[in-house]
Amino acid sequence: MKAAKIASAFVILAGSALWPAMAQNRPRSTADSVRGHFTSINRKVLEMAKDFSEDKYDYRLKPEMRSFAAVLVHVASGNVYAAKAGRGENVNWDELDPKNYKTKAEVVALMEKSVADADATLKSLPDEAFTKSVEPWLGMTEHTAEHYGLLIAYYRANGLVPPASRPKK
Questions:
Q1: Quick one: 9 exposed, middle or buried, by C-beta within 10 A (0-12, 13-18, 19+)?
Q2: Are 38 and 140 a contacting pair, CB within 8 Å?
Q3: What is d(CA 14, CA 79) in angstroms, rounded to the nearest whole number?
Q4: C-alpha to C-alpha distance for 56 and 16, rounded to whole angstroms
Q5: Residues 30-66: tens digit of each pLDDT
Q6: Residue 128: what are its φ and ψ, rounded to 5°?
Q7: Cα angle at 141 between 61 and 54, to 5 degrees?
Q8: 83 CB-side CA count, 13 A
């Protein structure tokens, strides 16, 4: 009997000690997950936009492909679309013209603005909105992730290590 009481007390004590850790492992809500992934992939692309050498912004993996800068403008176009659609605007995907962004500073500023606008729209939505639909956010996250992978190839083709692959200090 005494051993059973000690064992019960131990189980209760151990369980209460583990409760905070177990509570932290609860799955994120759909809203938090969508917001987190959208923000994360855009941060990675924005970091690349800032990091990649300006003299390589016109680099193309093949002549018929977009330049590094044009890929970033294309990604920004997706963010502009997502922000407008997320606000409920009746919108088409209007591709921004890379020729209107001639310097690295202009492309980075465009990316920063498009990410900030899309993030602000995304954060303004109530969590309940994500029980009806996760679009355009899921589609744009996938789109940006595909182009993120392409941008990694631009880095590697130039003998560079992408920021996310570098050793952490």
A1: exposed
A2: yes
A3: 47
A4: 56
A5: 999 999 999 999 999 999 999 999 999 999 999 999 9
A6: -65, -25
A7: 40
A8: 18
**Tokens standing for residue 67:** 């330049």
| Residue 5 predicted with pLDDT over 80 | no
Structure tokens at 157: 């083709």
How is residue 7 written in tokens? 């064992």
Give percent above pLDDT 70 in the chain: 86
Average the pLDDT over 89-115 and give the result.
95
Both tokens of residue 137? 């956010």
Asked if omega into 136 is within 30° of 0 (cis), the reply is: yes
- Angle, vertex CA 41, rays to CA 59 and CA 64, nearest 5: 25
**pTM score > 0.85 for this model?**
no
CA distance 52 to 58: 11
Three-state DSSP class for residue 11: helix
